[in-house]
Each structure stands twice: as C-alpha cells, then as structure tokens.
Write a structure and sequence with these properties.
The complex is a heterodimer of chains A (about 290) and B (about 400). Chain A is α/β, with parallel strands linked by helices and about 290 residues long. Chain A has helices at about 1-15, 25-35, 60-65, 85-90, 135-150, 155-180, 195-200, 220-235, 245-255, 275-290; strands spanning about 20-25, 40-45, 70-75, 95-100, 185-190, 205-210, 235-240, 260-265. The longest helix of chain A is centred in the middle third of the chain and has 26 residues, at about 155-180. Chain B has about 400 residues and is mainly beta. Chain B has one domain: Porin. A 16-stranded antiparallel β-barrel of chain B has the order 1-3-4-5-6-7-8-10-11-12-13-14-15-16-17-18. The longest helix of chain B is centred in the N-terminal third of the chain and has 18 residues, at about 1-20. The chains are: A alpha/beta (about 290), B mainly beta (about 400). The interface of A and B includes residues 51, 88, 215 and 244 of A.
C-alpha cells in the first residue's frame, strides 16, 4: 500500500512539474510568456530582437525548435508569413498555434481592394500592435488563456504571475504616459509604418514615413518631400527600428537637423534590453530626450 | 500540344471555381525574359541581340486538409506548355514523423536542384546538371519518403525516393549503331542525407550527401562479333554519388554572403565497341567513372544589389546532341565554365534584373580544337502573387 501511495505521489508530482514547451515568433512574446509561465514553461523564440520579423529565412534549425513544442505563439495579422513553412517542416502534428492578435483592436485594416501598388500592405490590419503597452496587456491575457488550456492544473500559478506582471506593467504604463505627455500632439517622422498603435496611445502625430510606401525602400524624390516636410513642420526626430538601413534618415537629418533615433523593437534588440518593459523604457526615454 | 492547352484551360476554370470558395489556394505567376548575345561563330545568334520568348510558370499551392498540401506548376517554355510539377505531400500526422511526397517534382539530389532557376543567384544551370540530369534538371515522377533523424544538437534528415526515371527517358539515344531496348519499366532510387548546422546567430552551414541508382538503358549486344550469334540483353546501370554544401553569412537584413558547391561522381555501365570480331565489331559492357562539380560565391549588399562568380567542371560536352553513348557516358571530353553576374532587386523578390556572362571551354581527348564560347545574358524576372519566405 505504501509503495502504491509513493508511486501515485511520484506520478502526480511528475505531472505538476511537467513543462509546457513553448516557441514564440518574436522575443517580445518570449518575454511575456516567461512572465506568465515562469518555471512551468520551457520557452524559445525564432526571430531575434535585432531582426525584422517581416522576413525570416526558413531554416531547418527553426523547424527543430518547433518539433517538440506544445504551443507556438505568433503576432499574427500576416506578420510572420514564414511561419507556416516552419510548422510544416517541423512535422509536429500536436502543435497548437496561438494568434495573439485575436483580442486586439486592429488598426489600418484596408477598407478597399488593395494590391502591391500600395506597397507591402497587411490585408488584415497593421500587425505592430505590440508597441502599444495596452495591447501588451491583451497579449498577456491571451497567453494566460493558452497556458491554462494546456495545463489546467497550473491555473492559479499562471493567474498569480499574470496579475503580478499586469500590476507592474500598469505602473510602468502610468510612468510612460506621464513622461510622454510632453510630446503629445507633436509631429514625428517614422521610417516604417509600424508605429500607429504606439503613436495613437501617446497622442503623437505621425507626420510621414521615410519609406514612400510600406516596405518600399526610400527614394530620392520621397526623401526630398520628407526634407521639406521636416523643415516646414519643425519636426525634431526621425524614429526608426534599429534593423533598418539608416542611410536615408541620416541624409534627411544632415539637411534638416532632425535627430535620427534608432530603437529596438524586440527584446534583446540591443545589448541590455532584456525585457518588454526595458524595451518600452528605451523607446520612451529616447523620444522624450530628442523630441 | 492541344492536350496541354486543354489541361491549362481546365486548370484555370478550376481555379476560378476554387477561388470562389472560402479557402483559396495561393496562386503565383513567375515570368522570365532573357535577352542574350554570344560569340559562337556560325550560329544565327552570333554577335546579335537575341530576344528569347518569355517563359512563364503558374504556381498553385495550398493545403488539402490539415495534414497535406498540393502544388501544381504549369510552365510555358520555348513555345510549349508543360506540367513542370504536380504533387501532393503529407506533411504531418504519419508514423515516425515521416513526410510523403508523390507526383511529379524536382528531385532532392543536391541542394540546388529543388529550387526553380528563377530562385538561383545566377542565370545558367550548372553544367553537370545538364550532363548528368537533363537541361531541365532532375525532374521525375515518383514517391519520396522523408525522415528527421534523432540528432539532438543539429538538424538532419534522410530522404529516400523511388522514381520512374523520367530524367533518363528525356536523354534519347539517337544515331545508335548499338541496339537499345530502352529503359523499360525500371524505377530508379534516389536518397539524400541532409544536415544543417547553425554556426552563429549570423552564419549557417548545410552539408548533404546524395545517392541515386538505377537502370538508364538496356543494350542488346553482340559479345562475339559474330553476326550469326544471338544478341544478349544487358541492363546498363548507373550510380550517382553526390556531395553538397552551402554556407551563408547574413550579418543583417541587408547583406548576405553565400558560398555553395556541389559535386557528383558518376559510375555506370556503358555499351562500347571492342576489337573486330569474326565479321562485325565485338560489343562490350564497360564501366566508366566520371564526375562534375560547381562552386559559386554570391554577395548581396544594400538588399538590392548582388554580384557573384561560378566555376563549373564536368565530363561531357555542353550542347552536344546525345549519341549512343549518351552525354553522361562521355568519359573522354570535358567542359569547363566560368560565369560572373550582377543582380539588381528593386523591391524584394517582386522584380529582378540580372546581367550574366558565361564562358565555356571545351577539352577533347582526341585533340580536337574548339574555340571557347561566351554568352552574355540580360535577364528580367517578375513574381506576381504571394511571396513565400526565403528558404536557407
């Protein structure tokens, strides 16, 4: 009888220590999953923080990461066009795909027929919602739901972690809101059309983009238009993701005096940025110091 | 010709019907247009600007169900429609995580053959592909079974397939003084061991070993040189062994250095004439061993520009008509190729321009002198439709 009880305890304890294998498409999701799952998830990511998540090469090493995963989280809205090929290559038929855009209020959803003449348009809406900290809260809740669904026995553990993190995030959101109040209504030029959620949250006016159309490389004629715009509106900053080529923004900067601000939009995007909160801290501080 | 038009019209009608459903397959159209000139004296193209008929590939692909996908590729090349690829693939749900691919497709011998030429960094097909596979590469009909191997620290896979031998059917035996029965119904086997090693966050290395074995023809030969003797049927077998590697260094999204090479060792039985017999030559079965290889470097910079160079070496003379020895049976003569190119990619993979030059050097064992041939090609490629992620 004692042996039976011992075996039962052993089995139960082994279940309670079972890890959920998670792979995330980006390092931002990676950080958020770690905050909720802590030591009950084993998590890895595909796209590095210093890489453009629009484009990732289909490499067998990524398939290997997905091979033993239980869950894969993605930003969605057609950002990770490379993911289906990796999932197919992993041959993992038990993998559950979680699209974190489900609960997000989507922006820039095309209302008319779009084609490639408009640039690299995302047909389901702009996928860069993760730059709005309020949307990070929605992502956290989606992550919590998925983890509970995978391991219902750990619901209380995940809930406590989620609530702890949401409290911390709320404090930071208040801090960021007050810091960014000084730039509210100010015009800023961005490089790529990935800042609509961030700009709306902080009341920043997007004056223009260095890219003539989403995903289309800068052209001399468009640079000239941006130079005129920056001069006319007295724009003080050009904000860009640190994985884009800064040649065109630097040209504009040399002529207009506007500051080029290169920021990470992924965790580990630059050395010392090890969490989502640190990343938004970096972006907010860079903006308020330069605008 | 008519049947291909019927197939195409049927396919288009099917697509229109299919596209009205809720679940659409992806449809892409790839167009290629080449303009070239050469220094090959005696040819109508010599020294002139020649415009090739544009080539088109219509790709349709999508999921059939949660476990399998299907791909169709109708090509219009040199004024004719053809079914370039048509296959289904079970990608998940099978025991041992096996994937099964069945139909007509580019066979996974080496790393380059599975990609369509528009996806290559250069313009011309590697010379040994043209000699040992076909001018269109190794495209065959059959089944392929793919397994991921349980190596923990790196990715490795093993593929084995059985095919009709379509590639060898295309190498017609013409002008033959030796009687051939053709291949008959003799399947060929192709296998591949692929490995992939991430060397750092910015560099990766893939290495592969390949093999293929089968009967490429059957010869009715007279081993006595006696015209009254019965002819003996001999299966002419071939064995290919291949090795390939690809190294890529990609420090950022704008720059990439690719170094890639492949080699093939060809061992096969060939029907040859021996000494004079009683009243006709004695015919023998000999075994020959030949090889071919290529190696190239391509450098992409500022995301929009590339340049590179390739060196090719192969047994066989490029451009020769296959005779009774077949081109792949030529163990006397060789061709070398030196190529260079520059590429311009204005916006991602939607449009590409390439300017390439290839110089061929011919070496004949009997001392025949032949001038080298240089061809310069300007190529434009467009891609209409959804763009798949770049494979390594």
């Amino acid at each position: 009888m004692k042996k039976l009880i011992f075996v039962l305890i052993l089995i139960i304890s082994s279940f309670s220590f079972a890890e959920i294998n998670v792979v995330t498409t980006t390092t931002i999701i990676y950080d958020l999953v770690k905050q909720v799952g802590k030591d009950k998830v084993k998590v890895d990511y595909l796209c590095r923080g210093d890489q453009d998540p629009h484009f990732l090469e289909v490499m067998p090493s990524y398939m290997l990461k997905l091979r033993n995963a239980d869950l894969v989280f993605k930003i969605g809205l057609d950002l990770e066009k490379w993911l289906p090929q990796l999932i197919d290559g992993s041959r993992n038929d038990k993998l559950t795909l979680i699209d974190l855009s489900e609960g997000v209020d989507k922006k820039e959803v095309p209302t008319k027929k779009m084609d490639a003449s408009y640039g690299d348009i995302h047909p389901y809406g702009n996928p860069h919602y993760y730059l709005d900290p309020s949307d990070a809260k929605i992502m956290i809740e989606e992550i919590y739901d998925a983890l509970v669904n995978e391991s219902p026995g750990d619901e209380l553990f995940f809930k406590k972690n989620m609530n702890d993190y949401l409290s911390k995030l709320d404090e930071k959101i208040n801090e960021w809101n007050s810091k960014m109040a000084k730039v509210k209504g100010k015009p800023i030029v961005f490089f790529h059309s990935s800042w609509i959620y961030f700009a709306d949250h902080y009341g920043i006016r997007i004056a223009g983009y260095v890219e003539p159309k989403p995903g289309i490389p800068p052209t001399p004629s468009h640079n000239a238009e941006i130079i005129q715009l920056v001069k006319k509106a007295g724009i003080k900053a050009i904000i860009m993701e640190n994985f884009y080529d800064d040649s065109a923004p630097n040209q504009i900067s040399q002529i207009t005096g506007a500051n080029v601000i290169k920021v990470p939009v992924g965790v580990y995007g630059v050395s010392g940025i090890d969490s989502y909160i640190q990343m938004i801290d970096y972006i907010v501080n860079s903006i308020i110091q330069n605008v | 010709m008519i049947k291909y038009h019927v197939v195409l019209i049927f396919l288009l009608i099917s697509l229109i019907g299919y596209s009205q459903s809720n679940i659409n397959p992806d449809i892409s159209l790839i167009g290629t247009f080449n303009t070239f000139t050469n220094n090959i004296k005696g040819t109508p193209e010599y020294g002139k600007i020649n415009f090739e008929t544009p080539e088109v590939e219509l790709f349709v692909d999508g999921y059939l169900n949660p476990y399998s996908k299907a791909v169709g590729n109708i090509a219009y090349e040199e004024g004719e429609f053809s079914v370039e690829e048509l296959y289904a693939e079970i990608v998940r749900g099978l025991p041992l995580d096996m994937q099964i691919k069945a139909g007509k497709y580019l066979v996974g011998f080496g790393q380059l053959n599975i990609f369509h030429p528009h996806a290559w960094a250069f313009i011309e097909r590697p010379l040994f592909h043209q000699i040992f596979f076909s001018p269109e590469g190794f495209n065959d009909i059959g089944f392929n079974f793919s397994f991921i191997l349980p190596t923990e620290n790196f990715y490795s896979n093993f593929d084995i397939g059985i095919f009709r031998g379509e590639t060898f059917l295309e190498s017609e035996i013409i002008n033959s003084p030796i009687l051939f029965e053709g291949r008959g119904n003799s399947p060929i086997v192709v296998s591949r061991l692929g490995t992939f090693f991430p060397l750092s966050d910015y560099s990766n290395l893939a290495i592969g070993l390949d093999g293929s074995y089968g009967i490429y023809s059957k010869a009715l030969i007279n081993t006595l040189g006696d015209s009254t003797a019965d002819l003996q049927s001999n299966s002419l077998t071939y064995a290919y062994a291949g090795i390939d590697f690809k190294y890529k260094f990609k420090p950022d999204d704008y720059t990439a250095l690719v170094i890639q090479g492949e080699g093939l060792l060809n061992n096969r039985k060939v029907a040859r004439y021996g000494e004079e017999g009683i009243n006709i030559p004695i015919e023998n079965i000999n075994t020959i061993t030949t090889y071919g290889a290529f190696f190239y470097v391509d450098y992409l910079f500022e995301k929009q520009y590339s340049f590179g160079a390739k060196y090719d070496y192969t047994y066989g003379i490029i451009g020769d008509e296959p005779d009774y020895n077949l081109l792949a049976n030529d163990d006397q003569n060789t061709t070398q190729g030196i190529s260079a190119w520059i590429g311009y990619y204005p916006v991602e993979e939607t449009l590409a321009f390439r300017l390439g030059v290839q110089h061929l050097i011919f070496n004949y064992a009997d001392g025949t002198k032949r001038d080298g041939e240089t061809t310069a090609t300007l190529q434009m490629i467009f891609s209409l439709g959804p763009h798949k992620a770049h494979p390594f």
